[in-house]
Every structure is written in C-alpha cells, then in structure tokens.
C-alpha cells in the first residue's frame, strides 16, 4: 500500500515560519510530479507549489518569494518551507504526487492533510 503522509503543520504567528514534509512509503518505483495544495472551508483546493522529478518548480503568485518547495528523491520526500507567513495562509495543506509502482503503472495520490494556522 503506497501512501503519502504529511507532517509539520501547526500554529504560528504572522511573520513566522513552518516547514511541511510529505513522506511517501510503500513499494515505489519512482515519483514524477509532486505538489502542495491548500484548502479552506467553502473554497476549492488550490495549488500552492509544484515540482517535477527533475526539479522544475511552480509557485502560485500568492506565495512567490515566501515559500520554497523541494524534494529528496532518494527519500521519496517532499518539503514546503513557508516563511513570512500571513493569516491568509491559514488552511489545510495537502501533498499530492504521481507515484509509479511499476515503470508504466502510476497512481495519483493525496496525503491526509495537515492544518496550518497563522494568527495575526
């Protein structure tokens, strides 16, 4: 059973920092694109940042210059360093990844989510 498990969420004051981690476990051949999404009540889940297996990155305009996405392919782990946090960053953050269990067999997986709360 392949799964993604996030950690690192919590409560932080505005201007503070948090680092989210997402570890993939199970029988994994490789992981291609990975990303962090966030969702607040009543709103659609939105893409925050993504990274390809070769390291190309994308950031939503709202987090550019404040968040950094990275990955350790040897550890099958995804990270999101969040600096200069704002109250509007408060959300449940989800990890997503296209996980290959065989060279041509893949599954789009989601983690369970981790709550990030930024107080003003």
Would you write up a description of this structure?
The chain is mostly beta strands. It is 0% helix and 60% strand. The protein has no helices and eleven strands. It starts with a strand and ends with a strand.
Low-confidence runs (pLDDT<50, min 5 residues)? none
Helix content: under 10%
How would you spell out the order of helices and strands? EEEEEEEEEEE
Number of H- or I-type helical stretches: 0
Major sheet size, sense and barrel closure: 7 strands, mixed
Task: Please report which band the strand proportion falls in: under 5%, 5-15%, 15-25%, 25-35%, 35-45% or over 45%.
Answer: over 45%
> Based on DSSP secondary structure assignment, what is the total number of beta strands?
11
Task: Please give the structural blueprint.
Layout: E1 3-7, E2 10-13, E3 18-25, E4 30-39, E5 46-51, E6 57-59, E7 67-72, E8 77-82, E9 91-102, E10 105-110, E11 114-119
Parallel strand pairs: 2-11
Antiparallel strand pairs: 1-3, 3-8, 4-5, 4-9, 5-6, 7-8, 9-10, 9-11
């Amino acid at each position: 059973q392949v799964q993604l498990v996030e950690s690192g969420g919590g409560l932080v004051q505005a201007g503070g920092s948090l680092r989210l981690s997402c570890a993939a476990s199970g029988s994994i051949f490789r992981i291609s694109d990975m990303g962090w999404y966030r969702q607040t009540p009543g709103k659609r889940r939105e893409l925050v940042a993504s990274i390809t297996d070769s390291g190309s990155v994308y950031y939503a305009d709202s987090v550019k210059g404040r968040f950094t996405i990275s990955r350790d392919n040897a550890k099958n782990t995804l990270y999101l360093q969040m600096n200069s946090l704002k109250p509007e960053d408060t959300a449940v953050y989800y990890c997503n990844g296209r996980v290959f269990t065989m060279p041509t067999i893949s599954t789009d997986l989601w983690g369970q989510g981790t709550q990030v709360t930024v107080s003003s």
